[in-house]
Amino acid sequence: MVKLMLGAALTAALPFAALGLAAAARKWGASAEASRKLVHILLSNWILLALAVYRSAWSACILPACFIVLNYASYRRGLFSAIEREENNTPGTVWYAVSLFLLCLAGYSLGTPWIAACGMLAMGYGDGLGALVGKRWGRSRFPEPYAAKSLEGMLTVAAFSGLAVGAACAAYVRDPAFALRAALSCAVPAAAIELFTPRGLDNLTLPLSVSLIVYLLARFPQLWPVFICLGVTLLVLLAAYYLRAITFSGLCSAALLGVALFLAGGWISYGALVLFFVSGSLASRAGKDGKAAAGRLHERQGARSTVQVLANGLPSLLFAGAYSLTGKAGCLLAVIACFAGAAADTFSSEIGMLSKRPPVSILTWKPAPRGLSGGVTLLGLCAGAAGALLISALALPGFGGGGMLASAAAGFAGSVLDSVFGAAFQAKYRTGRGRDEALTERPRSGEGPLELARGIRWVNNDVVNFASVFLCGLALAAVWRA
Fold it and tell me: Long-range CB contacts (< 8 A, 24+ apart) of 353-358?
């Protein structure tokens, strides 16, 4: 009983000791942000003391419940200056205490109280050190509205969140393999959550998400590859987001698409997505300045959106789902062919715009405006074939050389079909009059809607991409089955 009372006194004293150290640090010249993060990091260690002292949910939750009340009073009244910002203050400290309360309640109730340590330490050390590194050394800023966050800070969050989770699991579970899997599974998701969660809510979302991942890994070890898939996907997409190659909504859609493809089609389907996205993004950035004028004819410019992600990725997901349900090898090969077709179209369009020779219409072979759908060049066709072969190389282990060539042929045929559909059916609008008359794929200008010159109004580049990619996969699945 004496030991329990002593431990409870220590857990009650620790927060005030942390506040005292932060106040002393301010007097010694530390900045307000540094003192805040000092408290942020020190208080996360409270959970370690609580795990050593308390044996039930109700006893462990008493002090966190008190912290919620005190932190809210401080947020409203400024009681503890060491943890509140003078400007742009947020209820982050309140969410911090709420996280502690919820994790203690869930951890003890589920019989795995140590998962609370994983979440709290990831938030304390990952978020705390990430903010300090970003403030001091952050130079590489993310796009708006997240320009306050830096690439350096995000990588620090990932590194120290993973280390904190790994250390907690190693200490409480005593299984090095599980500790490593948990660390790798949590690192990148923690960084992504910290980056995109607004107004101090990351003090709630980050620890709860990390603890949930660790609990699921402990309860269902077979989920380990899924979380690794999620981590790799987010890492690639965060790099693309930093490079302004994808929007936030596109990032979320691509992350869901990646996990769904992995669940339905395994590593081959997932690898095809990653290889297509990386190679397609590189092709889009090649000779970017030289393609600016031609790119202005396109309806969609700049970073990839959700619609573009689905136009290129949804056909593959449909065939991956068919493979999961039927086990037909042709459906899995069709997944690769769809991405080969998407890559061929991307390479053909992006590299073809750099051709010194003007494009010609694939239907009439007459000169066509550079950048307008339906126009082809020899350079673009060769680049499309190279893109299809690149993705189709993934078919070699499971389908051999024949499968690779079949996939590449279907993908290249899909890119040619894309040009045919683009020339015959895609909507094109008239700009200017007389000698200034020209065509564009954009339905509006700064002055308002434009007049439809040819094609079908609802058939835009995304519809053409989806149709051509889906048909090339469908043809290959049918032929391979036969």
Answer: 353/287, 353/290, 353/291, 353/294, 353/295, 353/380, 354/286, 354/287, 354/290, 354/291, 354/379, 355/379, 355/380
